[in-house]
Amino acid sequence: MKTGSMRHAVVLFSALALCAVMPGCGMAAKLGIGGKGGDGAKGGKADGKAGSKQGKKGLASLRVVAVEKAAKRHLVREGTYRGELRAARVVEVSPDVQGRIKKLHADMGSVVAKGDLLFELDPLEMNQMVIQGKAAVSMSEASIKQAEVALQKAQADLDRKKPLADKGLVTKADMDNLETAVLSATSALDVAKAGKAQAKASLKNLIVNKKNMKVRAPFDGMVARRYLDEGAMASPATPVFQLHEAGRLFMRVAVPESDVPFVRKDMTGVMILDALPGRTIGFTVDLISPIVEPATRTCPVDLLVLQAAGGDGAGNGAGAADVKPGMAGAATLVLDEVDGALSIPREAVIERDGRKVVFVVDAAGKASQVQVSVLGEYGAWLRVEGVAEGDDVVVKGQIDLEDGVEVTISRVADVPAGAASARKGGP
């Protein structure tokens, strides 16, 4: 063999040997080197799939969590409480005496001023009683005169007999009888005078009751209810009208004891009534009960409604004609406000062994348990100490998370609801 041909053979043999050991080499397959050509190709593909599955399995075993950064925020704590509007004063108007209603001078919805006549009772029976009372006074005066005459006669008899008794011409028994007669006449006169005083007092009471047959409004207000019709019997225990004081309206709300320390007199807020959605009404805190109700752990607070006639013209407010006693709604107070407060979402904090803790995820993806102190609650946010500004705090997926576990961060919607882990093949 020539030298050139030998060199060409050596090169070809070397190339074939190298191709034989390379997976999927077509030349080797064609020449029958290294078994079937398809086996090498399939082997390469199988190795790639195995590596991909192993990588996916490693990711799937990581805990999936959602985070929110600890940051300085403007925090506002609000309290919203439901209640019903009521007038400052509500009274059930009834007569001081019993009688039949002769005339109603007002009706439901009537606006009345203090002293206006509301209704009057039939005075016929009372007039007869007054006449009888005057007659009783006259009879008592006659009884007094009669008793005075009897006393004068008894005293005269005693005075006439005394000189005779001194001479022994009148027995001691007769003198005792005369003295007894004077004492009896004196007592009779006292009784007659007392009878007159009683008769005059009864007459005075009847005259007052006669005036009370006409019932007047005790203050400026509006008749909210009418209970009886003309001709019905009314009495102190049977009201005829319900009267609401005009002008001022209040809403009494029950403030939870956790909010009570933040509520102060003259604080202002806004309320929205169910009947007037989208329209705000201002109020001030007027009265705060000094006690917390043990049964409900709430404190009664009265809110004074601030009304501007007709509202403000822009739908932000309610006029006096729109707002009525009995309307229900919700009142909101700004209890506390702080700017630049380090805060985290409320749901980030959980309890472990009686301590409040959060999980912070570092740059390497490791979650560390950190104890925090809650300085204040502001709706969905908590003002805290224990974390640093900018920390990634776990807000979902931390319920049974352990300290030091590696996690992967995802959006909140991607974290399974009600589950603390997204691992496969185990809890």
- Rough shape? elongated
Order of helices and strands: HHHEEEEEEHHEEEEEEEEEEEEEEEE
Detail the poorly predicted runs.
Answer: 1-60, 308-317, 417-427
How far apart are the termini?
A: 74 Å
Fraction of helical residues: 25-40%
Rg, Å, rounded: 51 Å
Mean pLDDT: 84
Q: Structural class, judged by helices and strands?
A: alpha+beta
Total count of helical runs of at least 4 residues? 5
Summarize the main sheet: 6 strands, mixed
DSSP strand count: 22
| Proportion of residues in extended strands | 25-35%
Quaternary organization: single chain
Supply database-style keywords.
31% helix; disordered N terminus; 427 residues
Explained architecture:
Helices cover 31% and strands 33% of the residues. The N terminus and C terminus are likely disordered. Helix 4 packs antiparallel against helix 5. The chain starts with a helix and ends in an 18-residue tail after the last strand. A hairpin with a 2-residue loop joins strand 16 and strand 17. The protein is built from five helices and 22 strands. The radius of gyration is 51 Å and the shape is elongated. Strands 1, 16, 17, 18, 21 and 22 form a six-stranded mixed β-sheet that branches. The chain has a six-stranded antiparallel barrel with strand order 2-11-14-13-12-15. By secondary structure, it is α+β, with helices and mostly antiparallel strands.
Itemize the secondary structure elements and their pairings:
Blueprint: H1 3-21, H2 26-31, H3 37-60, E1 63-69, E2 71-87, E3 90-93, E4 99-104, E5 111-112, E6 117-121, H4 124-166, H5 172-211, E7 214-216, E8 221-226, E9 233-234, E10 241-245, E11 249-256, E12 268-273, E13 280-288, E14 298-306, E15 328-345, E16 350-352, E17 355-361, E18 367-371, E19 373-378, E20 381-385, E21 392-396, E22 407-409
